[in-house]
Design a protein that fits this description.
Blueprint (H helix, E strand, L loop, with lengths): L21 E9 L2 E2 L4 E5 L5 E6 L5 E6 L2 E9 L2 E9 L3 E8 L2
Parallel strand pairs: 1-8
Antiparallel strand pairs: 1-2, 1-5, 3-4, 3-6, 6-7
């Protein structure tokens, strides 16, 4: 299934970050192996849905966000998982989500 034209940004490892940008980036994995095609959701500190992307074939995802506490939830046919990340300010904030 092609994701061209669906509006979701292309995921990958190349990343240009501005001085004032907050980027949450990472990988979805299962038993240490990357999981492509997972629906990765960004939830704010209150649990409200904020955004969604599809992980790349290598399991990569990223969100441009505001500073704060975030939950990243991954949904895949092989399992689900979530992880929390706190972005205190601008920069790249890594997070890995394990699905089981």
């Amino acid at each position: 299934m092609s994701l061209d034209g669906c509006g979701a940004p292309q995921q990958g490892v190349d990343l240009a970050v501005g001085d004032d940008q907050v980027v949450l980036t990472g990988k979805v994995k299962s038993e240490g192996a990357p999981v492509g095609g997972a629906f990765v959701r960004l939830l704010d500190a209150t649990g409200e849905f904020t955004a969604e992307v599809v992980s790349s074939a290598e399991g990569d995802f990223r969100f441009y966000a505001a500073p704060g506490r975030w939950t990243v939830r991954a949904l895949h046919r092989t399992g689900n998982g979530q992880a929390s990340v706190t972005a205190d300010g601008p920069g790249v904030h890594p997070v890995e989500v394990a699905v089981a």
